[in-house]
């Protein structure tokens, strides 16, 4: 055989081996086309190593694209909170709730919701324990409760929602008929 034929034969063997390996990794028969949902699922929730996926997890893998984006957004919002909270406490701590307009209140409410959702999502993100990957919901929950769960819950309390609720009562009063009217009128 010539060198060209040997190279072509080798390439064909590599393609067949790669297709078989991909079918084994995805748990689907050779030639099975992934549905749109399966493609989205593997893109978002499967772990990525280089440009190939490996080990199909029962939970969101901590090395998946979804988890990576979640951790990135969480880090950015933590940095925002680390800067914004001391400024708010330093400049507005003695201001009456109704006398100042905190322009970041709506964004702070979004941040609070994000961190509360993140606490819930953490129950569905696999974790590493003693070098072993854990993707059992009950074991992940147990490890989360033993570890940082209470810290996450305390630091995720939606304080800005309490401020928002307090501000909603500003500017309204109840008249003698029991109807609410704007106190500014």
What does this structure look like?
With 185 residues, the chain is mainly α. The chain is 58% helix and 9% strand. The protein is built from seven helices and six strands. A two-stranded antiparallel sheet has the order 1-2. It is elongated and about 85 Å long. 7% of the residues are buried. Residues 23-29, 50-54 and 180-185 have low confidence and may be disordered.
Short description:
The protein is mostly helical and 185 residues long. It has 7 helices and 6 strands, in the order ααββααββαααββ.
Order of helices and strands: HHEEHHEEHHHEE
Question: What kind of sheet is the major sheet?
Answer: 2 strands, antiparallel
Q: Radius of gyration, rounded? A: 27 Å
- Percent of residues in β-strands: 5-15%
Stretches with pLDDT under 50, minimum 5 residues: 23-29, 50-54, 180-185
Total helical elements: 7
Described by the principal axes of the CA atoms, the overall outline is elongated
| Strand neighbour order, sheet with most strands | 1-2
Distance between the termini: 96 Å
Total DSSP E strands: 6
Which percent range fits the helix content? 55-70%
Question: In terms of topology, how is this protein built?
Answer:
Elements: H1 3-26, H2 36-45, E1 48-49, E2 52-53, H3 65-92, H4 105-122, E3 127-129, E4 132-134, H5 137-146, H6 149-155, H7 159-168, E5 172-174, E6 180-182
Keywords:
185 residues, two-stranded antiparallel ribbon, 7 helices, 58% helix, elongated, disordered C terminus
């Amino acid at each position: 055989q010539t060198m060209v034929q040997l190279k072509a034969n080798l390439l064909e063997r590599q393609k067949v081996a790669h297709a078989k390996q991909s079918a084994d990794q995805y748990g689907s028969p050779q030639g099975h086309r992934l549905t749109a949902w399966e493609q989205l699922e593997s893109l978002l929730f499967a772990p990525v190593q280089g440009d190939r996926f490996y080990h199909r997890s029962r939970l969101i893998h901590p090395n998946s694209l979804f988890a990576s984006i979640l951790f990135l957004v969480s880090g950015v919002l933590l940095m925002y909170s680390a800067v914004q909270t001391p400024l708010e406490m330093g400049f507005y701590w003695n201001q009456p709730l109704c006398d100042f307009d905190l322009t970041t209140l709506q964004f702070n409410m979004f941040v609070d919701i994000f961190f509360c959702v993140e606490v819930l999502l953490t129950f569905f993100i696999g974790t590493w324990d003693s070098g072993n990957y854990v993707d059992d919901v009950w074991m992940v929950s147990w490890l989360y409760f033993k570890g940082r769960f209470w810290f996450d819950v305390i630091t995720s309390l939606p304080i800005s929602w309490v401020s928002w609720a307090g501000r909603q009562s500003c500017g309204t009063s109840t008249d003698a008929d029991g109807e609410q009217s704007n106190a500014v009128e």
